[in-house]
Amino acid sequence: MKPQIAESINNRFSPMIFEDKSLNMDQVNTVFEAGTLAASSYNAQPWMFIYGEKGTSDYEELRSLLSEYNQVWTADATILVLTLARHLDEKGEPNYFALYDLGQAVSSMAIQASHMGLQLHQMGGYDMVKAREVLNIPHEYITGSIFALGVPGDKSNLEGHFKERAHEPRMRKPITEISGGVSLFRKS
Ligand SMILES: Cc1cc2nc3c(=O)[nH]c(=O)nc-3n(C[C@H](O)[C@H](O)[C@H](O)COP(=O)(O)O)c2cc1C
Question: Computed from CA positions of residues 51, 54, 59, 64, in that sequence, does the dihedral angle turn out positive or negative?
Answer without folding.
Answer: positive
